[in-house]
Specification:
By secondary structure, chain A is mainly alpha-helical. In chain A, 62% of the residues lie in helices and 4% in strands. Classes of the chains: A mainly alpha, B alpha/beta. The structure holds manganese (II) ion. Chain B: It comes from Paralvinella palmiformis.
Chain lengths: 167, 506
Amino acid sequence: MSEKNSEEGKENAENLTDEIGRKIADAFDVFDHDSNKTVDVREIPNIIRSLGCCPSEAEMQDIILEIDEDDSNGYIRYEKFRPIMTKILMERKYRPATEDRILKAFQVLDTDNKAYLTQDELKEYMTKEGDAFNQDEMDEMLSAAVDPEKGYILYKEYAALMTVEDT
Amino acid sequence: MGCGTSTIVPANEPSAQKTMKAALLIQMWYRRYLARLEARRRYTWNIFQSLEYADEQDQLRLYNFFNDMISQLHLSSENSDDNQQNSLLSLLRMPSRPDTEMKNGEDEDANLYKHTDPQTIVVPMTYKGPRLDYPLKLDHVQCLIDAFKGRQVLHAHYLLELLHETRRILKMNSIISHVHTRISQQVTVVGDLHGKLDDLLIIFYKNGLPEARNPYVFNGDFVDRGPNSVEVAVLLFACLLVNPLSVYINRGNHEDHVMNLRYGFIKEIMTKYKGHATKLIRLFGDVFSWLPMATVIDDKILVCHGGISNRTDLDYLKTIDRHKYISILRPPTSSRDGYDSDDSDYNDDITEWQQVLDLLWSDPRPTCGCSMNTFRGGGSYFGPDVTKSFLAKHGLELLIRSHECKPEGYEFDHDNQVLTVFSASNYYEVGSNRGAYVKLGANLKPRIVQYMATKQAGRKLTIKQRVSYVEASALRSLREKLYASKTILLEEFQKRDPDNTGKLLS
Ligand SMILES: [Mn+2]
């Protein structure tokens, strides 16, 4: 018992690994429909993102290439997924942008400094730039982002709202 | 993009870079948000499915318990003439054939008719609902649809008549139906409806009423759970009577007296038809026992409610007398009808029963092989290898089944050799899932049509709203379940907390 204190540092590190391991297992299980420790490879982006990571589409493809096995038949094994995901989380890679950075990004798009974006502007940027949104993603974003009275996107309020909802 | 802003084009290269990066940042951020919503949606989905299947599992366990009891009573009653026990026995046997004493089919028909004669129920002059006469015409179907939209109830007299007519037609068919699309050049397959009239009406609206050029296969589970099982059944049967060669109705695991006792159909009949419920329940049960259990389309596609197992054999199924299964939950008993059956008879019965159970209760799984469906407590899990060898053995190309609610109303599995179609939208809760039906054209290539019945006219719910709504409802269900088991849970907790601290150590 007297050795407990000296062990504490090590224990904390272990606790962290345990906790990350549990989070990964939980997130994986939600998408493991048949409870056999495999998921459809198409679910992988959802699992990675629901664990709080925001890789770009290209980075996502790299991760998938790394965990996909030759004889996988489109299914990813938990055993293969866990170590790679653990590494990503331990190294704190692909961290989500803060509310402040999102606000700045909106300001870049708001070239006239009018403090809002019209629906057409947002659509134009989101479906033509970067990793373009598909129709469903665009519709979903607009449905919540557009101020019902004004008919355009007050992005400062929107970013704040999304941050609150996300926690 | 229409009118408005056109000065989006950036002036110089660095600014274009900046724009791209800003857009990318927002996209990555937003996709994470969507993924979290999706995870929440799956969580709730898992809760609903576990609750649903746990319930069905209970049902089978309970049934097996009663069945053991019946067997025991049966054995002991042979050695005694205790009248009280015999009457208890006959009561418990109720879900099985009520007419086991009947020697042949004609007697059975007469007896059933005697107990369910429509002529004994007079339609009052004040009745404003739909009236039917035979032969039934397409106009009658339209008239029923209009009446049901206006929340009218078909009078018991007409319902009994309709059921007798349906029974007469179904009796002439066999356990496996065969559909050919040579003339119609198409056929539509509809999955579980579960008493959801809105969904059936949407399908008819989008796809037209059944007729020679527009044949339908309804793949079982049209009753229970939803509020309009009677109306859905009436419409399907009326369509069958108008077009007996263009409407095929497969039996699902819910076209079953014992399931109906628990999942709402019987309750619905008792509420809608107070004085005549007994007759109707008996006749519905009998009609269900005459439903075919599978349909084969152009010798290429098998349509059945649950699925298959590694022992499923269509030729063997053809030899089965489907009518004896008033409830499919009832396993054959080892000693029946006075004679001492030896083990081989009993084993034959079990083999036959399992063929039926597999067809109506099974689910596909991505892993190879075949195993007991432990989640549901009945039927099998079948893997892609089972599907492949089954289809090859029977010269088939595709298995269409229902039985499982899917978020999109359909799902392909087993290398596209299994197609699940589920037609009750909003099954767990408003917004939980879409409904779908399948159209097979001349080349038999499946085309999926999806829809969502919704009361909120015009206004589309966002995913976020839908998830929150369904989540709340899942938690409510879970809470109810916990509450129902409160005493047991408390007892268990107290055992682990002898000092009454109100806390548990993990
Ligand atoms: Mn079912």
